[in-house]
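User: I'm putting together notes for a lab meeting next week and I want to include a structural view of one of the chains we've been expressing. I don't have a solved structure, so I'd like a prediction I can at least talk through. The sequence is below, exactly as it appears in our construct file.
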Amino acid sequence: MTDKIKNMLVRTVTGVLFVAALVTSFLRFEAMVFLFAIITGLTLWEYATIVNTMKAVRINRFISTAAGVYFFLAVAGYCSGITPSAVFIPYLLTVVYLFVSELYTRHEHAINDWAYTMLSQMYIALPFAMLNVLAFQSSDDGIRYCRILPLSIFIFLWTSDTGAYCVGSLLGRHKLFPRISPAKSWEGSLGGAILVLIAASLISQLIDDASILTLYEWLGLGLVVTIFGTWGDLVESLFKRTVGIKDSGNILPGHGGMLDRFDSALMAIPAAVVYLYTLTLI
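Assistant: Thanks for the context. Below is the predicted structure for the 282-residue chain, given as C-alpha cells.
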C-alpha cells in the first residue's frame, strides 16, 4: 500500500467518524452540548498553543480555555431555560481577571496578551456558543430543542465544500483570493453555492414545517452559510499565514487540527444567528 493510498484511507475514515459523531450528537441536546463543549475546549487550547509560539505573545492557555468552555455551557444553560442570566457572572469576572492579571505578570507586551486572549473568546468561544441560540427555540409551550437548525449549518458547509472542490477541480480558472488561498476559485465557490441551494430545497421538503423556516428562508440561510463559511476559511488561512504554519494541529489524522475543521463554522454560525433574528424583525 502506497503512502498516498494510506493517507487517503486515514483521511476517509477520520472524516466519516467525524461527520457521524457530529450528526448523531444533535439527536439529543445533552449530547450536542457535551460534544461541542469538548470541541470548544480543544479548539481554544489549540489556538492558545499556536499564538504562544509567536514572539511577544504569552496568554494564559488554561484560563482562556476554561473561560471559553464555561461560556459555551453558560449560554447552553441560559438558552435552554435551565439556568438564570446570573450564570454569566463567573465568566465576566474571569474576563476581568485576564485583564488585571497582566499587571502582575510583568510581561513586556501586555497589549498583545490582552488582544490575543480576547480574540480567543470572540473568534472561537462566542461562535460555538451561538449554536445554542440556534438549537433552543421559544414557543407557546416553552423552550424546545430544534436540532435541524444547528445541524443544517454543518450540512450546508459540507455541501459547499464538496461542490466547491468538485467544480473547482474541473472548471476552476479564476482565483477567488490568490493572496490567501490560491486553490480556491470563483467557479468552485459558485458550484458550492448551487449545490447548497439544492440541499436547502431538499431540507425544506423533508422538514415540511413552515414554523421553522419556509423554502425561501432555507435558501437564504444556505447562501448566508456559504458566503460566511468561505470567509471563515479565508480568515483561518490568513491566521495560519500570519503565524507561519500549514496546519493548526494534528488531532484529526489527515484533516489537521480543530481550527482547520471548524474554520468555516466560526463565521457561518454567528452569521446564521443574525440572519434568523433578522427574519423575525421583517
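A couple of points you could mention at the meeting. The chain has ten helices and four strands. Residues 30-145 form one domain.

User: Perfect, that's what I needed.
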